[in-house]
Design brief:
Blueprint: H1 2-31, E1 33-48, E2 53-63, E3 69-71, H2 76-80, E4 87-93, E5 96-104
Antiparallel strand pairs: 1-2, 1-4, 2-3, 4-5
Length: about 100
């Protein structure tokens, strides 16, 4: 009986700890790194397969601090809102696009 209570308690602690870590990691991913950037180009690529097709949306951002350009894959909703020449705050984490908040169009 004592072993079962200890085992159950240990399992509950592990589950709660794992859930807290997942929540923390998701929050960190959403925060990302904000930088000032300009949209210099927008394009999309489509791939058609046997039974399905897939479209990816690729805006090219230029960092305003150093002039380096980078291409991200973004959701269609973000892509539809972008125009070449927009500038604002790009938030990303590594190669993961998080959001672009336009300050000027």
């Amino acid at each position: 009986m004592l072993f079962e209570v200890i085992f159950l308690s240990f399992g509950i602690v592990l589950i709660v700890s794992a859930a807290a870590n997942i929540h923390r990691n998701m929050r960190i991913k959403r925060e990302g790194i904000p930088v000032s950037a300009t949209v210099v180009d927008i394009h999309r690529t489509s791939k058609a397969g046997k039974n399905k097709s897939r479209t990816q949306y690729h805006p090219v951002f230029e960092y305003r601090v150093n002039g380096n350009s980078i291409n991200y894959v973004v959701p269609e909703s973000a892509y539809n809102d972008l125009r070449a020449g927009d500038w604002g705050n790009l938030t990303f984490q590594g190669s993961l696009f998080i959001r672009f908040e336009r300050t000027y169009r």
